[in-house]
Amino acid sequence: MSHATLRQAGVDPTARRVMVYEAVARAEGAVSAPDLLGTLCAHMNKVTLYRILDLLVEHGVVARHTGPERTAHYCLGRGHGHFHCTHCGRCICLRLEDAHLERLVGPELTGLGRVEDVELRVEGICSDCLKK
Ligand SMILES: [Zn+2]
Ligand SMILES: [Zn+2]
């Protein structure tokens, strides 16, 4: 499954690349590189991890976006938004339908061009932190 996805995107599915891709896929929400390294450090060093992430982003397999304090976060899929908890730092993916995005930004973009990717960032306090 992961191998096919990578190959389809033009990425040679080496063991480490598949490992990184699966770690991003498994993560709940979007993860930062240091968090990924925490689960993968037995298999690769930081330089290798960053190189693989760059490659996956370049081929559109993994999306990179700016999280809290300008740290890069990674998740699967493009064109969706994120909710960042300013309290615990959790980054939750908002899976927006194209129709939602269209309604959200469409009127502002009329005549400006064609939308190919959208980065939407919402900040707040997550429900878990609100309970504390
Ligand atoms: Zn939180
Ligand atoms: Zn995401």
Would you write up a description of this structure?
The protein is α+β, with helices and mostly antiparallel strands and 132 residues long. It has one domain (2-131): Arc Repressor Mutant, subunit A. It is built from six helices and six strands, in the order ααβααββββαβα. The strands form two sheets. A three-stranded antiparallel sheet has the order 1-3-2. Strands 5-4-6 form a three-stranded mixed sheet, with no helix packed on it. Helix 2 packs across helix 4 and helix 3 packs across helix 4. The model has no long low-confidence stretch (mean pLDDT 87). It binds zinc ion (ZN) (2 copies). One zinc ion is lined by residues 85, 87-88, 90, 125-126, 128-129. Fe cation binds at residue 102. It holds the Pfam family FUR. Its cofactor is Zn(2+); Mn(2+); Fe(2+).
